[in-house]
Amino acid sequence: MAKELSPLDLEGIDGYWRAANYLSLGMLYLRENPLLREPLAPSHIKRRLLGHWGSDPGQSFIWVHLNRLIHEQNLNMMYISGPGHGAPASLANAYLEGTYSEVYPDRGQDIEGLRQFFRKFSSPGGVGSHCTPELPGSINEGGELGYSLSHAFGAAFDHPDLIVTAVVGDGEAETGPLATSWHSNKFLNPAQDGAVLPILHLNGYKIANPTILSRISPSELKSLFIGYGYSPYVVEGDIPMEMHRTMARTLDRCIREIRSIQRRARDAGDCRRPRWPMIILRTPKGWTAPKTLDGHKIEGFWRAHQVPILDVESNPAHLKILSEWLSSYRPEELFDQNGQLFQKFRDLAPKGNKRMSANPLANGGLLRKPLRLPDYRNYQATFSKPGTKYLGNTTVLGEFFRDVFRENPDNFRLMGPDETASNRLNAVYEASQKAWMADILPEDADGSELSKNGHVMEMLSEHTLEGWLEGYLLTGRHGFFNTYEAFAHIIDSMVNQHAKWLEKCKTEVPWRAPISSLNILLSSTVWRQDHNGFTHEDPGFIDVISNKSPYVTRVYLPPDANCLLSVADHCLKSTDYINVIVADKQPHLQFLDMDSAVRHCAKGVGLWEWASNDTGSVPDVVMASAGDVVTIESIAAVAILREHFPDLKIRVVNVVDLFKLLPESEHPHGLSDRDFDSLFTMDKPIIFNFHGYPSLIHKLAYRRKNHGNLHVRGYKEQGGLNTPLQLAIANQIDRFNLAIDVIDRVPRLQCTGAHVKEWLKDQITDHLNYAREEGLDRPEITDWKWPF
Predict the structure, then answer these.
(1) Are residues 430 and 468 in the same domain?
(2) How confident is the model at residue 1 (pLDDT cuts 50, 70, 90)?
(3) Which has the closest alpha carbon to 185: 247, 80, 248, 258?
């Protein structure tokens, strides 16, 4: 049976809760007189009232009850706040626990510190109204809704003693990412992972509308979560003492169930998918606010969502109501003469790292251990000379990842939406199968690769996978995300938010330790979608990444397997970056031996001597490329030109690190103007064959001296059910159009090259006709090799 709270327990919990509510309200309104030691006056009010009140009392209610459990049972617990602008509750509790003052000494545990604490909230140069990196104990950026639950599960994976309480706002619960993340319980293994306790906080309203889940019947709501596979418990009401008793009993029961599930799995070997507990907490919107204001309902209505009373500085009647509201929490009973929380309340909070605001996992870089990586050179592609051997680049990468799993069985996870095998990474299954706690049928043994102990995570929700990986990384571990290139856009905004988190940590929050980089592999790329067609052709994710901070973003386009291995090894060792790697899964020509690949990737951009013929002379043209397929086409165009114009001087340049094209003043990886001019010349035509949209190259290189001679070929939204060469021709990244481009742009070829140009046009027509008739490209295209 659950322990009933004693009158002393109730008094302490309610007092602590009132203190948190007082601080949350003070953040919204007060710039002076932080403890109401004198009558509230207009001069004490902030000049600009910003923030959100609606979910704060409910969140602090949860927090104080979790503190009791941590204290009594010595739990390792994290708190994730899902309501978008509910930071005042987390800030208040971090301050009450002392963590905030330890991190920010100017906001100490005294009257002046409290005054600064209030003034910094939602003020220029201060802290935001949603959870941000500046908030101790947080790993969930609250600026965008939908990711609290997936972050929580990501944190719980491979942390067997951890319980993550994920508070899901009922507005947040309407988002697609949150809806799919309820299914994360089908992937959490009680034998090896921690636990997640979801608490759906139903307060009835969003910013100006009711929430869906608050307006369906209690039986329907309960059935929804039973259908998701949870055991739901309901706590509802608005009378504090009754709610405290009910919440305490319910949380005791939930923790007992979690421990029982874990014991069955760990001691008895019962790894059937359990029904994890979850709580539906129904409280009024803006609980404890004034019931009404000027005849309008406040508590329990959407008007309590943000700042409920806006004109307190100019309206004496409303200032009086605010004063009564603040006084209703009886701050004189909570804080001593110096402005510190009375000792009897401080004793209710956990101590040291047991405080949720100080849990080291919420600053995961402190606990991060570097991966034990096999030597990537052992997986190298070997060949007799460049451009003569075809090999699947990601197939080779999969073999490397397989051994990363073997060396790091509890510290590395691979995420992908049902595409690990499709992206040719299936060698990983030799070391770790797919995590799966749902039913496994006998026929699954024939190729489904399912295992309750697996660390390959597959679910057809890019949002949930990305959230899992972010939670995993933010709590000190390592991972890789792989997806079809065209559908990486699904997580555009999630990656945006993570980039903002990383930039803030690197530039303004020095106490945040570096975490493992977010590594994203884009495969099944635009140029090999002949069987899927136009819908699967979109290389624009790297455009999105290019808009983010140069402090945290990197984009790599390795042209072959050895370069891909070198780049992947580098990315796995890096911290605090978003590394995007573009590498197609189909067999491609191999160009660089391992030593050459390592040097090439270290430079990020380089001149390929073996394909060039301008040594010791001024080139007539620079043939540049970035990407695997486009590099093959560019090299094939060079071969055509060298065959027909032996005296034409061609320089071949390949770009692996896309941001090398930026000036060094704009990106840490950018080339100096001298190095750029040395490679690309200052006055010769540059035919740049690019994997993505041509405009991105122009955006990166527009400041360069020779930008006027830079002619970029890339994807132009031309496609369909094509053969690879048809698609290339439609977008003019093929070898024939590239050769024509050179003839048109090298002055001395404009007349002398007329016969070859006509032959190239005929080649285009002949190959297109062949593809339409036969349904595939000619062998001289699919089996082409470098002839020199």
Answers:
(1) yes
(2) low
(3) 258
**End of a domain among 529, 561, 588?**
588
Residue 473 lies in a domain: yes
Print the SS3 string covering 279-290.
EEEECCCCCCCC
For residues 101 and 107, the answer to whether their CB atoms sit within 8 Å is yes
- Give the pLDDT confidence of 27-59 residue by residue, as tens digits: 999 999 999 999 999 999 999 999 999 999 999
**The two structure tokens encoding residue 349:** 């909070």
339 and 470 both lie in a single domain: no
C-alpha atoms less than 13 angstroms from C-alpha of 31 in its C-beta half-sphere: 14
Query: CA nearest 197: which of 261, 271, 285, 132?
Result: 261
**Orientation of helix 87-96 relative to helix 111-120, angle to 10°:** 160
Q: Which residues contact 774 (CB under 8 A, 6 or more apart)?
A: none
Domain check: are 573 and 706 in the same one?
no
How much is the mean pLDDT over the chain? 96
- Which residue range is the domain that position 262 belongs to? 7-361
Indicate if 344 and 412 belong to the same structural domain: no
Tell me how many domains the chain contains: 3
Residues in the chain: 788
166 phi and psi, to 5 degrees? -105, 110
CB neighbour burial string for 88-124, b if at least 16 within 10 angstroms, e if fewer: bbbbbbbbbbbbbbbbbeebbbbbebbbbbbbbbbbe
Do residues 303 and 382 share a domain?
no
Residue identified by tokens 């400041």 is: 703
Residue 556 resides in a domain: yes
pLDDT per residue over 580-593, tens digit each? 999 999 999 999 99
d(CA 475, CA 154): 8
Residue 693's pLDDT is: 98
* Phi-psi map region of 681: left, alpha, beta (phi>0 left; psi -120 to 50 alpha): left
717 and 571 part of one domain: no
pLDDT in tens, 296-319: 999 999 999 999 999 999 999 999
> Under a CB-based contact definition with an 8 Å cutoff, are residues 465 and 153 in contact?
no
Q: Which residues contact 517 (CB under 8 A, 6 or more apart)?
A: 473, 571, 572, 574, 575, 576, 577, 578, 579
* 701 and 778 assigned to the same domain: yes
Distances in Å between the Cα of 708 and the Cα atoms of 385, 498, 665 are 35, 36, 21
Sign of CA dihedral 342, 343, 345, 346: positive
Claim: this prediction has a pTM higher than 0.70: yes
